[in-house]
Design the sequence.
């Protein structure tokens, strides 16, 4: 898949009750031939948040728009457009929208998540 | 490194003559503990372009702002805000700014590039 596509061309999946107001789009993954890393775009509605959870793999984030907070371990940091976040594997984390508009960010994870997801 | 940082906090490096008007910032790499994937942010001034080159590793791109064209193999595609591009490894490619404002995009590559760079 080499033709560029707008990210909204990919289906927005919901997370469920543990992530109110959150959708995720898998914009680069094995469908596109990616062997190393997957790119997802996560959108969080105002007052919404992702699960406060942990897993063995890291996250690489770029904030596209909106105002939020990221919890990494015991620390809470403000995040906004243009910020870059690296969440190491094995650290509990959560993203929260504290603004009035959608919080949108890129969230990259290693393709090895597939092995994890299929355990 | 878990504290978020604005991408402009990272040094903008130039490419040289083969990439006029282009800067690159390594916003996530081994300095942050990334073992799998590096995130760079590339900015191309109007009329600027990246090298028309090839390498064994892929690119994963998200267009932050601006108007451009990406050449992937024999194909040329328009790119703009919100577009996602996957450039497979081993395919000749180039990014070109065709607008009047900077073209800014994320460019992810596997951390194995380090092994390649040190050959």
Sequence:
């Amino acid at each position: 898949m080499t033709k560029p596509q707008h990210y909204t061309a990919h289906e927005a999946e919901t997370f469920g009750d543990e992530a109110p107001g959150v959708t995720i789009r898998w914009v680069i993954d094995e469908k596109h031939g990616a062997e190393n890393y997957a790119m997802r775009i996560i959108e969080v509605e105002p007052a919404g948040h992702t699960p406060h959870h942990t897993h063995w793999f890291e996250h690489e984030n770029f904030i596209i728009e909106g105002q939020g907070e990221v919890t990494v371990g015991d620390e809470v940091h403000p995040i906004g457009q243009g910020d870059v976040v690296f969440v190491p594997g094995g650290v509990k984390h959560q993203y929260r929208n504290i603004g009035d508009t959608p919080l949108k960010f890129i969230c990259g994870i290693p393709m090895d998540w597939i092995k994890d997801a299929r355990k």
Q: What stands out?
A: The two ends of chain A are 28 Å apart (CA to CA). The domain at 13-44+53-117 of chain A is CATH 2.60.120.10 (Jelly Rolls). The beta strands of chain A are 5-6, 13-14, 22-28, 37-44, 59-65, 67-72, 75-80, 83-87, 93-97, 103-110. Chain A has one domain: 13-44+53-117.
